[in-house]
Structures
1.
Amino acid sequence: TQWSNYGDALLFDGRREKALEAYNSALDTVDRKLVVEGKPIDEVARAVYETFVLYLRGVPPDDDAFLRVRQTLESFEWHNDDIERIALLSRAWYVLDDPSRVKALHESADNACPGYLQLPDRRLLVSHTGS
């Protein structure tokens, strides 16, 4: 959503409180979409936005809320041609500090879509994870 993109920009600019507000708005938006449309990608987006909200609230990684969202993220399947899902999931696994999953997702996307290598958030994640 536009809110999550705004949250990303704010987070990368170091404006964590404003980023949290934006991700909360993204959660509200995707929750409304799930009620109306119920698309699988919206379920993925919801888990990813929740990951960012928990992270920005300073919730410890071993907290039940984080463990629940981690289980939800682990349940999502992805395919090499599903770039939107891969991009979302890689962001969540980055926040959850799981570089092996980030690397696997990036390699899959890079092979399927050479343009993926040029996405700003892909380049940013590479600069932080080396994958």
2.
Amino acid sequence: MRKAQAAEILARRLKLDERRIDNLCLRLADQGMFPRADGSRRYPPELNAPHLARMLVAALADQGLGKTPGVVTTVESLRDQAGNRLCDVLANIIEGGDTINTAARGHLVIRTEPAGASVVLDGNYTTFGAPPPETSAARAVSVPGATLAAIALEFGGHSPAEADTVVALAKLMGTDNVDPFAASNSKWLTEAQRVLG
């Protein structure tokens, strides 16, 4: 997937300005944290799941263009008690598989001051970095799991309608054992498409 296509998906799904997302990515590219077209290449390189996860973090944790590389580095490096990095969890969701179904029934909260994040996947709550403050407010951005799952599906090449259908199906079925695109489950996808119209 190219940067422009990914920026359009993030802007539409997160209700953000596409140009702002592009500028955040340019700041990351200036610091060597994001791929860019070199020399006479006409097209920028394809983005992989870690690049797309970084782009998502940049869009959600935006504190100004000048702070972008530092904020993204901080948020990406947040770890849970088991040592898992937040960026790896997000990249895994973006790559698809079972995590799409569990993400559809969860949420993501990124706190920038103090740096921390909370992820709920299929009812399992995990804190990355600093825990949420108990006695004061924290600057945070929350993304519903359905939105996160739809972004991941579109990053994977599905149309917006297909992404919405699969997310609705995952929420309705309430299980992480469903691959709506598998032949054995095509009746569920057909029914969901009919209902969602």
3.
Amino acid sequence: MKQQEVIQKSKSPSYGIILLLITAVVVAAFFRFYKLDQIPPGFTFDEASHALDALDILSGELILVSTRLRQTPTGYMYLLAGAFQFFGKTILVQRTLTAVFGLSLIPVNFVAVRTLLTKRRRPGGAGGSPPRFLPHLNDATHRGTLFNEE
């Protein structure tokens, strides 16, 4: 029973780590939302392209792939169209949507990295090994076989 209790306690993050995560999110939110309507000045090409795609969606067009930008996530275009519909068609609405989703990725990435970097403990006391896909991914990228464009 004691080994299982130790394992259960080690799985939950300490209060210090949680406080660090909350602090990081608050500081990031401050810097991300500070003068959101002024920085960057003007309306960038990417923002304009996303806004035009969202406006096309609001006018009734079905868009699966943007004709203006390559690699634009379809889900983002539809989320932006919904935000424009509910909150108005302004730069601030678009930048706020992007900032909120960007901030939400901080805890997601924290949990993902923590999961990958912590050792998995087994009841017998032996430490676990790192995830098996990492060495293969590393070998493939060094050989140049993973991201070859042919």
4.
Amino acid sequence: MSRPRCHHAGRDPGIARLPRSPARRQPRQPKTLGDFVKPSTTLPRRKPKPNPCPTSALITWLPLLTRNRRRFNEDCHPGHNMTHSIEQFDAHLTQVTLFLEYVFYVQKIVPLLASKIQQERLPELQSEIQEGILLARRIYNLPDLGNSPPNPLPVDPHCPDHLLSDHMRERIGRNNPLFDIVNAPFTHPIGTELAMICIDHAWNGYDTFVKSVVSEIKERCARDDRIQSLLGEERQLKNLPTDRTLELLTIGPTTAELVQGVRNLGSRLHVKPEYAELTFRAAKKLRTAFAHRFGRPDKWLIDAVNQNPFTEFNVRLLNSELEVTTAFSRNVIEVISVRAHLINAKTRKAYEHVWTSNGPS
């Protein structure tokens, strides 16, 4: 009786199921560690058609981000080019999207490379495969991982983004040992670390952009009443909150403006307009939790998790630990991008009388 085929973690069925020649029989049930890696003789002889990235549902937004940002800026305030600061911000966010693309590509290519390993080379890789199993045991805190016989479980290529983490964990230890390592960035706890790296990177770019804009306004509009009000509060409070600074300068996006900004971009973004403000606030709270509380959520975060469905707010508590999904980090990047361009457009409009001049007012 033939065993079910071992599917790759990727969500594209063309990659999840490597085709085999009709004339060949199904490979035997693996009994040794080396047998987990399919020999190259099971691959088709003809060159396969290129497949999209296995996590294409997660990253189709990546090549669109730059175009979306340019279009959003033009829609908000036509006739103006983006300032140097907003261009630097766009370049900064491009780096984190490239990082994610790299991670997703590794998930796609590693199983394809593993399937091409010649049978006679497998003994040479025993130690590397064993090393991967030992690392997976530490990642998932499963000391017995790899001790049970394989019991392949297919991957659903149509698994929703927010359920991808659960989908991967259900298959840990059942498929090729490389499955557990390659898919670690897409499930807890490594997935949470990856998501927070992306959120931190995007937020740092946003923070730098805001400071640059504020500094430029202070320089160009030193005698403006709004600047005087800002300087007065800064003298009273050393670390004035960013939102208050933007409010005093009349360039801070309101919740309604952020919601409308996301809505204007429609299906080009994944985050829903009604969750835009919550996503932005949660990103700030998450950064504080991981930077100063060892990842422990405060009451605000706990309430946000309990009061919002995981299908829309892709953060949850898993065994008392915060799980931040890659899908949520994607939403954060989208919201931060929209918010930054709103600030840029409002700055151009609020200080238009001096923005086209060369000297301070």
